[in-house]
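Customer escalation, tier 2.

The customer says the design service returned an amino acid string that "doesn't look like it belongs to this structure." They asked us to rerun it and document both sides in this ticket. The original structure tokens are below, unchanged.
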């Protein structure tokens, strides 16, 4: 079974704005582990927040500050252990018993700060 949840909220005006967004993906897996089975699915979460601020919206030279924050994590009950050619042909969704405890677990954080300068003289 596959599950996807997504939420976002944001607002802005001529000077500032922000956005917060989150997503969660998961599934129960599709492979069959020998001798009793086990979890072959995954769960992934991602969060992001962005904000912008223009120092003076009426200025001829615009200064905009931007900040972006991110966080992700995932747990996958998957393996790098493959199948023999014969097993892959006969039962492609099979996983060997030896891989039953294989797992990938990671997280990532990110921070990005930007300053933009632009002349608006040609547009006025």
């Amino acid at each position: 079974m596959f599950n996807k949840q997504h939420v976002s909220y944001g607002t802005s005006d001529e000077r500032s704005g922000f956005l917060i967004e989150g997503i969660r993906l998961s599934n129960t897996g599709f492979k069959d582990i020998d001798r009793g089975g086990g979890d072959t699915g995954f769960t992934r979460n991602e969060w992001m927040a962005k904000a912008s601020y223009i120092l003076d919206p009426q200025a001829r030279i615009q200064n905009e500050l931007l900040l972006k924050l991110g966080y992700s994590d995932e747990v996958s009950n998957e393996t790098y252990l493959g199948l023999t050619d014969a097993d892959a042909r006969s039962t492609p969704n099979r996983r060997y018993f030896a891989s039953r405890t294989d797992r990938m677990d990671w997280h990532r954080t990110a921070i990005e700060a930007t300053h933009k300068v632009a002349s608006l003289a040609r547009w006025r």
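Tier 2 assessment: The sequence is consistent with the input. The CA atoms of residues 69 and 111 lie 5 Å apart. Helices lie at 85-90. Sent an explanation to the customer and offered a walkthrough call.
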